[in-house]
Fold this sequence. Notes:
about 70% helix; mainly alpha; about 140 residues
Amino acid sequence: APNILGIRMDDDSKITKDELISRANAALKKIVPEFVGNLKERVSKLETAIHKNEREEAMSIAYDLECEAATFGWPRVTRICKWIRKILNGDYDNKPSAEDVLKTLNALKLMVCDPENPNEDRDMALFKELYPILQKSISDI
């Protein structure tokens, strides 16, 4: 059976690099709307898990968002989710204050409040403001 790119693994035919890239881009275009469509809800679930002190659930959601956001072109969401996951895992240089965690969550929520219409200027300004807080806790963020 063909894989996600429509390539049969037992097919001996040669496929060009450009054709592979074209197929990969077409596959991404099909699944990006699903990611974008439930991004706000998933960040809300992350926030709920953190507030309920459901550490394992929150780390799992943060990890999934971190990986998927990197794939689908949301680099600031990736870095914030990585930071949250590391904080929850105890993998930090300096423990952040609860206020710093809440500020980070609020920035993340704002960044995904309308994922169909991202505001790059606002998000970049938010991230620049947030970055010193992130880096204070995890130097290699």
